[in-house]
UniProtKB/TrEMBL annotation:
Domain of life: Bacteria
InterPro entries with a match to the protein in the record: Na/Ala_symport
Parts of the chain that traverse the membrane: 62-82, 126-147, 167-186, 193-214, 226-249, 294-317, 337-361, 381-402
Family: Belongs to the alanine or glycine:cation symporter (AGCS) (TC 2.A.25) family.
Alphabetized GO MF terms: amino acid:sodium symporter activity
Protein species of origin: Diplocloster agilis
Membrane topology field: Multi-pass membrane protein
Name assigned to this protein: Sodium:alanine symporter family protein
PANTHER family named in the record: AGSS FAMILY TRANSPORTER, SODIUM-ALANINE, TRANSCRIPTIONAL REGULATOR, LRP FAMILY
Length: 445
């Protein structure tokens, strides 16, 4: 799976003449620029990106990075970066196809994503229809797992551990909040995500930056350890790296895995939000949504990784002699500089990150269900059920659901990556056509 994910990213990067890399500055500029000409869609390009980021920036940025660095050593962070660089092209391509092949549903809303690209873009229709059915089915199942139950469970557990609030109270609060937002549909989700996501991202970034600066004496050694362990055949961490033992291939495996599943490049989820954007060219929205991968992994995951690498707690054990991992490791890392406030910061971060993920994934699941039943009539019922399931997730221990959710996420990627490879010519045509427009505009300016 990881070879297919990263391999597709490498192929598309070369196929597109490295334009997703070369046009990254343009992509960030386009987030706040207005489309020229006829711009069809339901929400602004910025709101579309924020909805996609709401689903990707989540517990993976806090828990996933820590897990990768414990299992794969500090060097796993380097492999997260490399997977994200090639993931830019993957995220660009799937978003381009989502806009190019989107349609308008019975409610006069945009409906798009990999399932519509497969249905409308494949020359052999039955193959496209079969892959679209599988993708949509896996997306609906994943929405209840990784996009709902596990997120609610993370919020309730963190709030209970830090503030002592019973899980049922937390579950009831986030269920009501989710219901209020989700019943308004994509426009309501877009407005809320457009408000929450920038705030939570800046809040966490600044908290991590303060922690890194307070541990500045260890930063150079931490960065050195990251690169040393990333490319050593068998490396034993020392100093700030604790007692972690991990070779290059172990770092690669965990870094790529956590990177891909954090930014979701290649899974096919984010393009569903891209399809709702008001835009005059599919490539414009492709570039805008591509920045989500950069912000998620290159920026947010890096900040968590540097906090852990400079804290000296990587490889530390708890009272029972078990190596600290996941959220507990990240909390300990922040606490080295900020004391008890470190636990509060991570708890607030998990709560905001996970709640926004619930909102983003509801939209993905709703659109996948809409494709399966070929009707919008079930949408409001789905929103209601999805909101109620939040309470179940908050009040139940769900290790099995975590495992099933990871599997469903992985299964989503298979038909989506096949779609990207089959329709790479369509992506390239859109990319090169838009490039000509960029060059013309630059010459005029």
């Amino acid at each position: 799976m990881l070879v297919l994910l990263v391999g597709t990213g490498i192929f598309l990067t070369v196929r597109l003449h490295f334009l997703p890399w070369r046009n990254l500055p343009h992509a960030f500029k386009a987030i706040f620029s207005k489309s020229k000409g006829d711009s069809q869609g339901d929400i602004s390009p910025f709101q579309s990106l924020m909805t996609a980021l709401a689903a990707t920036i989540g517990t993976g940025n806090i828990v996933g990075v820590a897990t990768a660095m414990v299992s794969g050593g500090a060097g796993a962070l380097v492999w997260m970066w490399l997977s994200a660089l090639f993931g830019l092209s993957t995220k660009y391509a799937e978003s381009v196809l989502a806009v190019k092949y989107r349609t308008v549903n019975a409610n006069q809303e945009m409906a798009g994503g990999p399932m519509y690209a497969m249905t409308n873009g494949f020359k052999i229709k039955w193959i496209g229809a079969a892959l679209a059915f599988l993708f949509s089915l896996f997306a609906v199942l994943a929405s209840f797992g990784i996009g709902n139950l596990t997120q609610a469970n993370s919020i309730a557990d963190a709030v209970n551990t830090t503030f002592g609030i019973p899980v049922w109270i937390t579950g009831a609060v986030i269920t009501v909040l989710a219901l209020l937002v989700l019943m308004g549909g994509i426009k309501s989700i877009g407005r809320v995500c457009g408000f929450i996501v920038p705030i939570m991202a800046v809040f966490y970034f600044l908290a991590a930056l303060v922690t890194i600066l307070m541990n500045h004496a260890n930063v150079a050694e931490g960065i050195s350890e990251i690169f040393r362990m990333a490319f050593s055949v068998k490396a034993v961490a020392g100093g700030v790296g604790g007692t972690i033992v991990a070779g290059m291939f172990q770092s690669m495996r965990w870094g790529v895995a956590r990177g891909v599943f954090s930014n979701e490049a290649g899974l096919g989820s984010a393009p569903i939000a891209a399809a709702a954007a008001k835009t005059d060219h599919s490539s414009r929205q492709g570039y805008i949504n591509m920045t989500g991968t950069f912000l998620d992994t290159i920026v947010m995951c890096t900040m968590t990784g540097l906090v852990i690498a400079s804290s000296g707690v990587l490889g530390v054990t708890d009272a029972a002699g078990k190596t600290l991992d996941g959220a507990q490791l990240t909390i300990r890392a922040f606490s080295t500089a900020m004391g008890p406030a470190g636990a509060w910061i991570i708890t607030i971060g998990i709560a905001l990150f996970a709640f926004s993920t619930i909102l983003g994934w509801e939209y993905y699941g709703e659109k996948a269900l809409e494709y399966l039943v070929r009707s919008t009539k079930a949408n409001k019922l789905y929103r209601l059920v999805f909101s109620l399931v939040v309470f179940l997730g908050a009040t139940t221990t769900l290790q099995m659901v975590w495992n099933i959710s990871d599997t469903m996420n992985g299964l989503m990627a298979i038909p989506n990556l096949i779609c990207l490879l089959v329709l790479n010519k369509s992506v390239a045509e859109e990319c090169f056509d838009y490039q000509k427009n960029i060059l013309k505009r630059n010459k005029k300016n």
